[in-house]
Input
Amino acid sequence: MPALLEVKHLKKYFKTGGGLLHAVDDITFTLEKGRTLGVVGESGCGKTTLGRIILHLLDLTDGQILFEGKDISNPSKKELVKAREQMQIIFQDPYSSLNPRMSVSETIMEPLILQGKLTKDEIMEETGNLMDIVGLAERFKNSYPHELDGGRRQRIGVARALALNPKFIVCDEPVSALDVSIQAQIINLMLDLQEERGLAYMFVTHDLSVVKYISDDIMVMYLGQMVEKAPSDELFSHPMHPYTQALLSAIPVPNIHNKKQRIIMQGELTSPINPKPGCRFMDRCRYASPECSEPQVLEEPLPNHFVACCKSNQKEEEEK
Amino acid sequence: MADNILEIHELAVEYHTDEAVIHAVNGVYLNVRQGETIGLVGETGAGKTTVARSIMRILQTPPAKFRGGSIFFQGQDIMTLSEKQMRKIRGDKIAMIFQDPMTALNPIERVGYQIAEAIALHDKVTRAESEKRACDMLETVGIPAGRYKEFPHQFSGGMKQRVVIAMALACNPILLLADEPTTALDVTIQAQVLDMMHSLKEKLGTSVVMITHDLGIVAEICDSVAVVYAGEIVEYGTAEHIFDHPAHPYTVGLFNSLPKLDSTEPRLKPIKGLMPDPTSLPQGCKFYERCPDASEACSAGVPAAVEVSPGHQVKCFLTGVNS
Output
């Protein structure tokens, strides 16, 4: 059986005044049913763009997307409508992603109306069910987004994404606009839904503690490229790429007795416009040497642990 | 106490709108010592920013209204000062770092000038002198002085926040109010900025009130912690007390709802429900409706602060019972 989602050498370049902006550069991964892939990286690394290309909210420049074995890289309008039933998105900002002039129930039932498979009564019933599933009380049916708090708004976003019973949902920073106590409520809701419905998530975030919690595999992106990908626990216990190491060490841990040694990275993200062929992290990397200006190859030094750094083997030997 | 830079007694602030009165801050007590970093932790709408803005006296009145309380800064009640006197303190002895560096800077003014302006306003120095000190400040926060003449849009988010910090520290303030200074930044840049704030604090001996919702940041740089809920400080103590022996159910709930890097539990433990509506706060304990251990007494009366160990205060009826 083919994998649920297969992405091969996906590229997205934007034309800008200064040259080509490499937003997503040669990303390859597969995602199985019921699994979660976490995508992490700093702002501007292309993680949101990646999610949007897969859903065809943006056209791809090059590469291939296979959904259940079917090529949907350049779909016709009809194919796209069909594919979108299976693939949905939950947006980052529960304030701007809802139409302020549509009530809660109108927002949730819109996909069902557009699909055109159910009668009016069935749609009403299904909307009620969906609100129930995501924990929105029936009394909010006719409320408008501005009357609700961030947590409830994000529940509307989840309900809308679930409406057509999709198999795959791109979650673009769904909890970063929420307070921790509410964030935990939404994450638990998403985990419950995954268990019940066998959903696959692509969870895009910059919050590393959340991503570890929810993901099976984690992909680390830097300036449009995948620099490391590994099972969640493996990545946290044994990060190989210097960027991943620095990223992990930067997380503030709520524990006063366990102050860790930080790797403070110098500088900031460089420009993704016309990048040089070598390692894009080179200028900030503490292990950088001349061979880093060669193109980096993605290797698999351990089973399922991919890393694109010519230094990763060497460093390990040093540690031993 | 003489060594307190800042003493806040029973501060109460309301916002008056056409429809309702929002009780934003309800009787906050806070003391800040020389060189101390205190973390003000709580959720959105808990009243953290209102407290900071009250200290700066930059709340818009109306809609804001001081219902009571006093704020003593170096022994002087700043609530009684005139606006003219306050302007001398603001930016000089008390400075503030705002949450969003994108909107805190003037987009049509060169960054160096924005720093020099604060210096020229408070210290009687020549223009050349204020420019030189502004350049020094830029270097201190890790920006080459050569970028003095650039505009904010030419800087990245992290750099802009450094400029805002340079501006706040330009006059060597005694008290620095940092309102979520790193929330808008990436973790790697956040690490750089926190690291820099920490070393500057050591160097200059500034007292800091750090407003944040991130307990990780608190663990990293705060000496003591005040947990704010619905406009009240429900727990107050040293960082060790709060992290090792959190006593208020809300504090415990906050810690439990964080995803932990070393945890293997299948689900998070969120705090159920939402913060009470600040226009109609409940009668008794404000956390009563969300509290897992609530009893009859909790809905009837407001709990007073109880000292569970020296310097560690908790506003909860259940603290004595449990321990």
Notes: Chain A touches chain B at residues 42-43, 149-151, 179-185, 187-188, 191, 206, 208-210, 212-214, 236, 246-247, 249-257, 259, 262, 264-265, 268 (CB under 8 Å).
